[in-house]
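The methods section describes the discrete structure representation at length, but only in general terms. An entry of this sort, consisting of the sequence and the corresponding backbone structure tokens, reads as follows:
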Amino acid sequence: MRTTLLAFAVALGAFAGAAQADVLAMPESASAATVSVPARGSSMATVSQQFGEPSTKHPAKGGGSAKHPPITRWDYPAFSVFFERSTVIDVVVKGVPMPIQNKDELQPASP
């Protein structure tokens, strides 16, 4: 029994010493600043005036309660606009990853 426990402990220690973490390198890419997009807080009317009619207007989802307001999405060729009721809450630029938040909290990989 002791031999089995000792062998297990040695194997576990060898495995732990060989463990490695992967490092995810995020390439710097084009930002949303290179594409003109609606400002957060804009109205549907303002977005229509500035950018014209979207290629697709998706029907509202949600809206069953005050905690779950209706969310609508309009798709343009370069971006999608998300509205809560009739106010812009977010814009997603196609092909551009979201910016990394809290970069100062990221820890460097240990060798």
User: Anything to note?
Assistant: The longest helix spans residues 2-18. The chain has a mean pLDDT of 81.
